[in-house]
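stage 2 :: seqdesign
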């Protein structure tokens, strides 16, 4: 045996061993190749396709009228904007908008809204279901119209 066999390897030898190991120098797997090059354009295309499949509810006019309902809540033009929206697009599917529409105090609109709530209630999140129940119970107790109070109670019993 030679004297060199008992010696520890020098740093140059250690580095050489690292270079030849399978783990050293292994390249990280990158997923950037799988991603589209321009995510912003892809998102815009997806949004445009979604609007296309929405039909009339995907138009800019719908969006403006829908936003007017929310912006004019509590003002004198609120009921007018709700009526315009319902004439053109029907009762909305959005829970927060339905809850706002219940404050119009127009019996025919409120009754249609109750019917819409019954149809979409099962698909709502837990938080939205709780909001709907609260709103209906408030209407059941405080509304001036006996018809609306009775219909609110019926709707509340139906969804529970």
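stage 2 :: out
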């Amino acid at each position: 045996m030679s004297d060199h066999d008992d010696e520890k390897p020098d740093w140059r030898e250690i580095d050489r061993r690292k270079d030849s190991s399978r783990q050293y120098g292994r390249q990280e797997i990158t997923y950037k190749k799988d991603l589209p090059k321009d995510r912003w354009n892809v998102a815009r295309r997806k949004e445009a396709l979604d609007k296309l499949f929405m039909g009339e509810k995907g138009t800019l006019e719908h969006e403006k009228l829908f936003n007017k309902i929310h912006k004019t809540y509590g003002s004198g033009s609120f009921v007018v904007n709700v009526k315009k929206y319902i004439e053109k697009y029907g009762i909305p599917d959005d829970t927060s908008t339905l809850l706002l529409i219940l404050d119009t105090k127009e019996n025919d609109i409120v009754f249609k809204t109750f019917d819409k709530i019954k149809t979409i209630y099962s698909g709502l999140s837990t938080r939205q279901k709780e909001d709907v129940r609260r709103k209906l119970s408030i209407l059941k107790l405080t509304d001036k119209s006996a018809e609306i109070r009775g219909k609110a109670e019926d709707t509340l019993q139906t969804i529970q």
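stage 3 :: structure notes
- The chain has a mean pLDDT of 80.
- The CA atoms of residues 2 and 111 lie 100 Å apart.
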